[in-house]
Design brief:
The complex is a heterodimer of chains A (384) and B (368).
Chain A lengths: L16 H21 L2 H25 L5 H27 L24 H12 L32 H10 L1 H9 L2 H6 L1 H4 L2 H28 L4 H27 L17 H11 L7 H6 L6 H6 L8 H14 L9 H16 L26
Helix pairs in contact in A: 1-11, 1-14, 2-3, 3-10, 4-6, 5-6, 9-10, 10-15
Chain B lengths: L14 H17 L4 H8 L9 E11 L2 E8 L11 E8 L2 E8 L11 E6 L5 H9 L5 E4 L15 E7 L3 H11 L5 E8 L8 H9 L4 E6 H4 L4 H7 L7 E6 L1 H13 L6 E5 L11 E5 L5 E4 L5 H7 L17 E11 L5 E4 L5 E4 L3 E3 L3 E3 L2
The chains are: A mainly alpha (384), B alpha/beta (368).
The structure holds FE2/S2 (inorganic) cluster (FES).
InterPro entries (chain A): FA_desaturase_dom, Fatty_acid_desaturase
Keywords (chain A): Oxidoreductase
EC number (chain A): 1.14.19.3
Amino acid sequence: MTTLQRLEDNPIAHLTAEDIEAIGRELDAIRDEVIAARGERDAAYIRRVIKVQRSLEMGSRAVLLFSLFPPAWIVGTAGLSVAKILENMEIGHNILHGQYDFMRDPKIHSTTWEWDMATPAEQWQHSHNEIHHKYTNVVGKDNDLGYGIMRVDENQRWHPFYLAQPLWNFINALFFEYGIAAYDLELGRNLKTKKRRSNPIFRKNLKAVGRKIGKQALKDYVIHPALSGPSFLHTMAANFTANVVRNVWSHSVIMCGHFPNGVSTFERTSIKGETRGEWYLRQMLGSANISGSKLMHIMTGNLSHQIEHHLFPDLPASRYAEVAVKVRALFEKYDLPYVTGPLPKQVASAWAKVIRLSLPNRKPTPDPDPMIPPRRPVAEPVTA
Amino acid sequence: MTSPVRPTRLGHVPVTQTLRNGAWRVVELVTTPVVPSDYLDVIAPLRNPNVLRARVEAVHRETANAVTLELRPGRGWRPHQPGQYVRLGVDVDGIRLWRSYSVSSAAGQPSGRISVTVNAVRDGVVSSYLLAHARRGMVLNLDLPAGDFVLPPARPAKSLFVTAGSGITPVMGILRSALHELPDVVVVHSARTPEDAVFGAELRALAAAGKLTLIERHTGADGRLKPADLAELVPDLFERETWACGPGEMLDALADHWSEAGAAERLHVERFRPTVLVAGDGGSVTFERSGAEVEAPAGVSILDAGEAAGQLMPSGCRMGICFKCVLPMRQGIVRDMRDGQITTAVEGDNVLIQTCISAAAGPCHLDA
Ligand code: FES
């Protein structure tokens, strides 16, 4: 990794190429340990979460049949919101990463799972697993950085268009699932020219998204309300609310994963001929965690352990907590910044960045980031 | 999540059913993207006809090494013919492993139950697991009955069954179902000792009642049964319609013997899965659909090896994180190039492997 850094203070300047490969080996060893222990416990865990989620969803939908009565509306909406969050985060996201493929249960498998989301699982897997996880935080490659519509880095040229990015980000949070669908379709890029618009693959994907959204909307906004009879409008409103709650929650969690202060971005050229150790290092520096209780981790689908998730995207998510202890020790050993903090702080930090970058850069360059510990002086940039 | 749908025989559909289907579709829309059965699974795992399961109703110990499981198949089950086998999917340490077991109970039990008899084989992960852990109330995954080791509709006047070890299980299913329709039956059964003979007591009782002629052979004392011995034990050998089940070498020897006598069509055999897969370095990878065969050395991923040979392969990240390169392995053995983990598949399996991080560790057959 040659250039990596846009930060004032290069967090890896003190590492040698050998250090980086050693980090890679240590991380591989952590992974092997989990793989060797993986089994019954993990299978039982995901089955239990699925069971809880389904029971909660069925129960909430049943309560919402009577959502004409305010207490039923509140209980049902809250329950449905939680069920939808669990479904997207701890179940869908993780199964679609292949974390539970080892079970060989065709019902809980990355190739067969479909989720309660506007975007079809397969398209999301492409843009998320294949692009985002491979090219984490590489500007111009990883579109998750700003979803292609935001300025996420001081070095990106400012344009008046970006003044509105706090607003875009807010709207994106409310309707996140549709934002993701548009993003998976690369809508912006694919609608640009006639040739791209008529590309058969794009058309096929577009159709699939249309079908998926149709079914999802029919369920939440027509069939389920209709079954509620006189509670039609109330049930509809409840479903809408649950979807928005889920969207805002997942948007916040995901924003905390790569946006907060202290997270590095990388240049396209920096990943040419990247070794496994360098790839690991990029994941370490390009992700941020959220600290909190066990419940908090479950509700974020363990994406609160974003760093661990990015290092080992295919390990069962419920293992990240135990892995985190070792990973953090490794960060300390090699004097690397392990970015973490409670949810409100991380969300605020991410939003502050969105707002700050909507404006042109302040001159002179901003103060050194307090999240990054001071570094030993280094004579030369690292070249691998 | 979409359930793999079993083809149904739709002929004439009555109106009530059409209505029911309509109502069902509404329910399906409510539960989208999963299907209603996925919710019902939470409550009643046996009622889902798209995912066949069975509940263990009773466990009987046969010998020190064998147990019989009485199973109640869930919805979607099709009754078996005596002599057929079923595949059981057992979750061992969180991983679903499938193995075939002959049905040893009589066909058409009024209770709807079937039983299989599991013999612990050496290093057998599933059989030893079942021997130790099978309990009443346990739910297993099940596949529809299969196999053509069955009696013809026109029952033969004279029949012979040659079995060794757990080879007796499908034969027991046949005898329990159809013994009364078979006028002249000889059973030649070999086991290591009299105590090791699964169903020994039942066979001896049938023989004592004059229903069949039992010839027991104890390999611990008398040595292995050779085809030549059979001529002595059963003088009218080639007049009999014969069914044989046991270890591969025995069946090979019998097949030779019968074809030398020009009676090959009178011999029916059932082979148990012979393979013990041992991990080596590299191997030939066969893409069954395209017919391509590639030599894949140890350090090369199956994805790279396949592509180099012009095979069209799905792929994405090429580093093991996107799961886009997953293909079903029908049989074979591969090694994870990152951590050395071995994955095997035997005939009948369809183990999904990531081709970008898997290297051949022996001959592999992919469904691609
Ligand atoms: S190509 Fe991505 S996991 Fe194999």
